[in-house]
């Protein structure tokens, strides 16, 4: 156990150091000039790889050499993001993640080290995401294009899932990630409005095949339930769509009948399956029952509850309906579940879910002590119904009502979060509870404390105290769950620990520079403690295979050199344009967001971005002629070259400058100069004062935004 504690100390130290570096670069500290920033980014990259190389001979710490190699791969991306910040390239450009992906993918191929597989997968999908959703510009795309992209992502991840499931690619994380990604992408494709009912039919057909696959051919309880849940959500979303379209008494009556038929059919089907499979000992019958119960409960309960409420609102007065729904939820739905113990499981969970939906929906609008009565009923259900799914549903419902109603009575929502954190953490330590309920209580406790760090107290010291409390509690729980060798709880806490670091990046109450220094200090503390523990405990480390640098040095070094080559090329090409490019002055209109990796930036719109009286498709390369006006500004001349053809006969003028761009649909063009990075907290000032952009354009038409000006 001491070995795991030491490993965890080193791991947290490296994680905090990387976070500190990211926060520092994102702060865009104005006291550092361009050359210093470039030097620091290269030095950090060199440091990680030198440390990884230097530790390769320490056999008992081969893991540390490997982790530092991974840290170097991550630091390369941070360095490329810094270069983008220095030269004002697109914020969160998909090309940043493509370039970041290349060496990490090569690391993954050559080493087959699981962290590189996961990093490559995440970077590839971040590149896809920012290609589809650019953070600086809006690209107009047709629904057919979106349908195609959803299916390309689905098919690509299906291939990865097949490779990992058949053992051709050994990576459990990719196995699970690819399944989740293709399931969600497939689900999203069903809502593209193209080709009539084809997207919906394809989703239902593919979902049905997956359901049968995970049911019988490749049995998997988890995948089966996820597939069933997404199919349920698909039906529910379409029900709501039809409800909006055909809102009437007849529609709701029809839907109530449909609810009864769904539940009856499910019960009859499961009973038939049990009889037919009574002689078999296969687990697939149990899997089917669980997944089918989730599917039927979600669909039937949601449709039934909404239909009852909708019908009553159409035929009765609103005040009467809310009271009626409250008592109906208790007497008509929750009561039978509690007192009729022999009820079929599918019917029980459907009635319970309907009762909770109607109860929550009504009690939130009722005044007085109704909510207390409802909470007492939930506590009784918790005690009377011992089934884990029922208790999980009851726990969630209880917390939703408690949080909503306490927020009405307490001075602020912070007190609500404190109460939930304290009660759920205490519940987590009740040993008599089943493990699943202990874990769910841990999730709610950490979630409430994490949300508390985002509330923004009036007192600065209180903000710092709450953030330190979360860090201390989550770190303590990390070591405790590690000591208990409880993988599920350790994974839960580790996820919240990293979520905290990510959320603090967007926390405006504390500067990125101060966060960076704090994280650096914590990194040093964790490293010193881990090193002291390592030496003092005199741990006997088991024999492990040599580090990646010992086994793969000849293939790792070229990949590392490639990273420096890519960084060097970015610096050289940008500096060449700054030194030799033509200077143009453009009019602009800014707004102020924050980049994922590069810090605060001003988003810019140019008059040259609009091609007057021209319609262009998105995704094409274009060369636009800028012409200097009498006031010294350059503007769109009316000439452009698209796919090798000029829009009309072009006669060059001495002041003309040609700039490269990409069409984004309609009349719009983007040039890669739409973002200007600023020191943290100065975006509003820049927005108020900046009116013009000074841009350098190279001989080949590539542009770099050099500075902003107010005159």
From TrEMBL:
Q: Protein name, please?
A: DUF2157 domain-containing protein
For this UniProt record, give its keywords in alphabetical order, as a comma-separated list.
Membrane, Transmembrane, Transmembrane helix
Q: Which InterPro entries match?
A: DUF2157, GDYXXLXY
* Pfam families noted in UniProt: DUF2157, GDYXXLXY
Enumerate the spans annotated as DUF2157 domain. 10-114
Ranges in coiled-coil conformation: none
- Tell me if Membrane is a UniProt keyword of this record: yes
Q: Which organism is it from?
A: Brevibacillus formosus
Q: Give me the segments passing through the membrane.
A: 7-26, 38-55, 67-87, 93-111, 118-139, 145-163, 175-195, 201-218, 223-244, 250-273, 294-315, 321-339, 351-382, 388-406, 413-430, 464-482, 488-505, 517-533, 553-572
């Amino acid at each position: 156990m001491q070995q795991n504690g030491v490993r965890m100390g080193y791991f947290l130290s490296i994680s905090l150091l990387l976070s500190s570096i990211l926060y520092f670069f994102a702060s865009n500290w104005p006291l550092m000039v361009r050359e210093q920033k470039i030097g620091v980014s290269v030095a950090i990259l060199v440091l990680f790889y030198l440390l990884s190389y230097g530790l390769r001979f320490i056999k008992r710490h081969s893991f540390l050499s490997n982790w530092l190699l991974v840290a170097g791969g991550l630091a390369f991306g941070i360095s490329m993001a810094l270069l983008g910040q220095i030269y004002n390239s697109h914020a969160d450009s998909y090309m940043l993640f493509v370039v970041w992906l290349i060496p990490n993918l090569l690391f993954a191929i050559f080493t087959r080290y699981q962290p590189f597989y996961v990093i490559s997968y995440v970077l590839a999908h971040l590149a896809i995401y920012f290609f589809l959703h650019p953070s600086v510009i809006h690209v107009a795309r047709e629904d057919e294009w979106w349908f195609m992209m959803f299916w390309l992502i689905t098919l690509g991840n299906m291939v990865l899932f097949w490779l990992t499931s058949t053992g051709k690619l050994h990576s459990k994380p990719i196995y699970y990630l690819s399944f989740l990604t293709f399931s969600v992408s497939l689900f999203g494709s069903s809502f593209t409005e193209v080709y009539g009912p084809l997207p919906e039919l394809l989703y239902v057909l593919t979902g049905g095949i997956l359901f049968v696959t995970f049911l019988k051919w490749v049995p998997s309880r988890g995948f089966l339930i996820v597939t069933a849940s997404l199919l349920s959500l698909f039906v529910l979303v379409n029900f709501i769509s039809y409800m909006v379209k055909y809102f009437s008494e007849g529609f709701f009556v029809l839907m109530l009948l449909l609810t009864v038929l769904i539940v009856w059919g499910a019960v009859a089907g499961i009973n038939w399956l049990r009889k037919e499979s009574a002689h078999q000992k296969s687990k697939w019958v149990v899997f089917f029952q669980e997944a089918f119960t989730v599917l039927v409960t979600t669909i039937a309960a949601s449709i039934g509850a909404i239909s009852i409420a909708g019908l009553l609102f159409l035929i009765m007065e609103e005040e009467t309906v809310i009271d009626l729904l409250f008592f109906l939820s208790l007497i008509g739905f929750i009561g039978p579940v509690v007192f009729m113990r022999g009820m079929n499981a599918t019917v029980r969970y459907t009635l319970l879910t309907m009762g909770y939906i109607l109860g929550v929906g009504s009690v939130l609008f009722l005044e007085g002590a109704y909510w207390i009565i409802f909470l007492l009923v939930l506590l009784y259900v918790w005690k009377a119904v011992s089934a884990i799914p029922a208790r999980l549903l009851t726990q969630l419902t209880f917390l939703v009502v408690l949080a909503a109603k306490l927020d009405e009575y307490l001075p602020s929502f912070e007190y609500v979060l404190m109460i939930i954190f304290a009660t759920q953490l205490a519940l987590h330590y009740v040993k008599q509870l089943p493990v699943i309920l202990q874990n769910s209580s841990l999730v709610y406790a950490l979630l409430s404390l994490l949300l508390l760090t985002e509330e923004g107290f009036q007192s600065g010291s209180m903000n710092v105290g709450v953030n330190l409390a979360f860090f201390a509690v989550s770190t303590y729980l990390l070591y405790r769950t590690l000591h208990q060798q409880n993988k599920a709880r350790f994974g839960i806490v580790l996820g919240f620990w990293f979520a905290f670091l990510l959320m603090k990046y967007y926390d405006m109450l504390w500067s990125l520079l101060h966060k960076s220094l704090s994280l650096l200090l914590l990194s040093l503390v964790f490293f010193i403690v881990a090193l002291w523990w390592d030496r003092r405990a005199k741990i006997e480390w088991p024999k492990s295979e040599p580090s990646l640098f010992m086994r793969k040095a000849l293939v790792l070094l070229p990949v590392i050199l490639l990273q420096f080559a890519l960084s060097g090329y970015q610096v050289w090409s940008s500096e060449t344009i700054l030194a030799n490019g033509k200077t143009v002055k453009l009019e602009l209109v800014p707004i102020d967001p924050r980049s994922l990796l590069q810090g605060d930036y001003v988003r810019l719109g140019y008059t040259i971005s609009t091609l007057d009286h021209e319609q262009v498709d998105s995704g094409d390369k274009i060369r636009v002629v800028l012409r200097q006006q009498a006031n010294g500004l350059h503007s769109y001349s009316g000439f452009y070259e698209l796919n090798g053809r000029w829009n009309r006969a072009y006669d060059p003028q001495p002041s003309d400058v040609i700039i490269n761009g990409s069409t984004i649909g309609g009349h719009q063009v983007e040039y890669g100069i739409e973002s200007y990075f600023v020191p943290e907290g100065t975006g509003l000032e820049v927005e108020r004062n900046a009116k013009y952009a000074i841009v350098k354009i190279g001989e080949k038409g590539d542009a770099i935004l050099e500075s902003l000006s107010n005159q």
